[in-house]
Amino acid sequence: MQKSLLGGCFSERLLEGESRLAPWRVSSYNGGMNTFATRTATTCILLAMALSPSLATAFDGQRSYGYLKQLCSFGNRMSGSPGMLQQQQLLEKHFSDLGGQVHFQKFQIRKHPLTGRPVPMANLVVQWHPKSTERIMLCAHYDTRPRPDRELDPRRAKRGVFLGANDGASGVAVLMELAHHVRDLPERYGLDFVFFDAEEFIFDERQDQYFLGSEWFARQYRDHPPAHRYKAGVLLDMVGDAKLSIYQERHSATWSDTRPLVKEIWGTAKRLGVKEFIPRIGYAGAIRDDHLPLHNIAKIPVIDVIDFEYPDRSNRFWHTMADAPGRCSADSLGKVGLVIQEWLKTKP
Ligand SMILES: [Zn+2]
């Protein structure tokens, strides 16, 4: 019903060229339209605004959840694994089919922590409006931890399969769905989706290094500056928890160049009535994640949107076999997607 209402109201051009938050601009866009048509279009826009600010291009949480399940069906997706390869093939096709420019930023590490052999790695970059020199980055890590190493039973910790539905697939699933709506966003900025490899290619906490992919990306950006600059970035990590509660992450909320972004995102959530974005700093300490190299090496203002209470303060599903699709929900992915989509629409 919502679809047919909008189908009758919006012309293609209005959907693509006009912000629904500025209906007064309709008449200037449609100099040739008669008064009745202009009024009808404006009424429809106002009606749609009253119903929901994002109705015309509503982010589909259910479809996003379908993507999450599809990613998990590949099994564990640690760097260099068959599951990662399957995921890369899926994403390359998915984003190309939807009109994104896809490329892999390949690199390798010399020694696999267990086998000592080289491991091929790749960040995946999807560009929308590639010619824009001022860009926004939405990013997520797309590798999963090799093992469910926080399982209490040592056998499960060593031999169990870690699916990473929340910690690995959720951010990817949000961006896969968002790709369907990119054409409805204003073209004020170029937009890049960046998927980082090897966020946690960790077999031994004491010696293995985190953030290999984002560090590589950040160094390239610093040492071989591209023609474009990133004005802002949002990292999505663990955003699918069925019991969603997203506090502000401490680094993001306190760095002077990212604090305004935190305000924008949580402000957008408040405007939309998404109460799961809780407007205060949470979690025990500052969280180490891919936003650190991006911010500290590349100097890109990137915030971490993360729900680090999975499912609650105990965080007991984190890095265990419980991190499976059943612990995530379409509703949570839908809420996060809606906030990000709306932020992109209204970004100053
Ligand atoms: Zn993790």
> What is the CATH top level name of the largest domain?
Alpha Beta
Q: Return the structural class.
A: alpha/beta
Number of domains: 2
In percent, how helical is the residue content? 25-40%
The CATH superfamily label of the largest domain reads Zn peptidases
CATH architecture of the largest domain: 3-Layer(aba) Sandwich
What characteristic shape results from the CA principal axes? Answer: globular
- What is the overall number of helices? 13
Order of helices and strands: HHHHHHEEEHHEHEEHHEHEH
Ligands bound, unique: zinc ion
* Largest sheet geometry: 6 strands, mixed
Question: What is the terminal-to-terminal distance?
Answer: 32 Å
Number of strands: 8
Strand order of the largest sheet: 1-2-4-3-5-8
CATH topology of the largest domain: Aminopeptidase
Chain-averaged pLDDT: 87
Poorly predicted regions: 1-55
| Strand coverage percent | 15-25%
Radius of gyration, in angstroms, nearest whole number: 21 Å
Question: Nutshell version of this structure?
Answer:
The protein is an alpha/beta fold. The protein is 39% helix and 16% strand. The chain has 2 domains: 51 residues, no CATH class; 288 residues, Zn peptidases (Aminopeptidase, 3-Layer(aba) Sandwich).
Description:
Helices cover 39% and strands 16% of the residues. It starts with a helix and ends with a helix. The N terminus is likely disordered. The chain is globular. The longest helix has 17 residues. By secondary structure, the protein is of the alpha/beta class. It has a six-stranded mixed β-sheet, with helices on both faces. A two-stranded parallel sheet has the order 6-7. It has two domains: 51 residues, no CATH class; 288 residues, 3-Layer(aba) Sandwich (Aminopeptidase). The chain binds zinc ion. Zinc ion binds next to loops.
